[in-house]
Predict the 3D structure of the following.
Amino acid sequence: MNCSYCHLRRNRAKHENMTFYQIKLILDNFMEYAEERRVERFKIGLVGGGEPLLQFDLIKKIINYSKRCDLFSFYTITNGTLVTEEILSFFKEEKNKINLNFSLDGYRELHNLCRKGHDDSGSFDVVMDAVKRYTSMFGEEPIINCTVHAKTIEMREKVFHFFKSNGFNRVCFSRMIGGYDLGLNISTESFEHFLLEALVQGFDMRQLQKMDSYDCTVYGMKCGVGRTNIFYANGNIFPCGRFINLEDYVIGQYDTPIQDVELNMKRFHSNSPNQCYYDSHIAEQKTFPLSSTNGREEAL
């Protein structure tokens, strides 16, 4: 895939996949922290390195290793291009441990506007086929992740109708960032108004479940930088995915104990949680954000 707003298009040379050894140390650190602080749950997003199913073997190892305790729940988001029966069978078997969500921006023309293959062809048919196979195996539609931009808002009635008519009631809407060159970015206010309209339409949205939670303004919630979110990339830890490779914002390395990370992240604690910390402190758009929460949420 060659999606227009993917941060890897601009930072491909700067991205390094994490090894299983590194991830084992990370999970061990979380287990140690949870035992000390009596944390019952960590939610971890296996996102941020392009299409996650390229690392399917690694995902299987992570899930298997995480079964050492009942501390973790996972999710990942696929563009649908690599979904096979083997992959679907795995996620069905492990559905109590990890959720498989699908990126789908709406009806054909809207989805294909930004989500294209390397030959510039749209990916709508591919993802819809994968979603149908998921629905057939799981007996329900998957959670859909929809990126909202200016065209989405302009055509919102058609977007809502598309999702509803296809049975997609569980939709996570996220505000587009990192695509200023496309002329499609929207304000926080416009996005919040869009969410209110989606609420009226009856969508079961992530945003409605924890509007006052510290997670990410991309989803219409409070910014979790310095509070609940940490993001692992290229051997380092950052307060948010948008800070990848910004040395001044490194709050640890992959093997840093979570207790130390928690202390380091406090220097980015904002008194204006309704504003994106990145937008408030860094003028130049550099990367695409990835989220995480729980009382804490992490992204690998």
Remarks:
- The chain has twelve helices and eleven strands.
